[in-house]
Amino acid sequence: MGLIGEVLLLPFAPVRGSGWVMRQLIREAERLYYDPTAVRAELARLEEQLDAGEIDEEEFDRREDELLDRLEIGLRTAAGPGEGTAR
Fold it and tell me: What are the CA-CA distances from residue 57 to residues 27, 62, 64, 72 (Å)?
């Protein structure tokens, strides 16, 4: 974008900056949500809850499936594009 375009869009700079901040926040939240270390820790806590009788087998299976899906996505994302997709 040229100098004239930048000058014309200058009044919108706060909106553009806010959009950038929101994209960064979303990217970081997704990184934390799919972080394999965090997901493994949640799986361990889930198993502890099952062992302690805090949740039943059905609840354990449902939540375990969700966590394993997150772990798979996190590992696939960490491997990078084109890697880890072959089965």
Answer: 34, 9, 10, 22
Distance of alpha carbon 21 from the chain centroid:
17
Q: Does the CA dihedral 48-51-52-57 come out positive or negative?
A: positive
> Rounded distance, CA 65 to CA 85, Å?
20
Question: Quick one: tokens of 1?
Answer: 């974008």
Residue the block writes with tokens 């798979």: 72
Residue recorded with tokens 């491997």: 79
Question: Running DSSP on this structure, what letter comes out for residue 55?
Answer: S
pLDDT digits (tens, 9 = 90+) for 16-66: 788 889 999 999 999 999 999 999 999 999 999 999 999 999 999 999 999
Looking at residue 77, the DSSP 8-state letter turns out to be: H
Task: Look up the pTM and report it.
Answer: 0.66
Residues 16/9, Cβ–Cβ less than 8 Å = yes
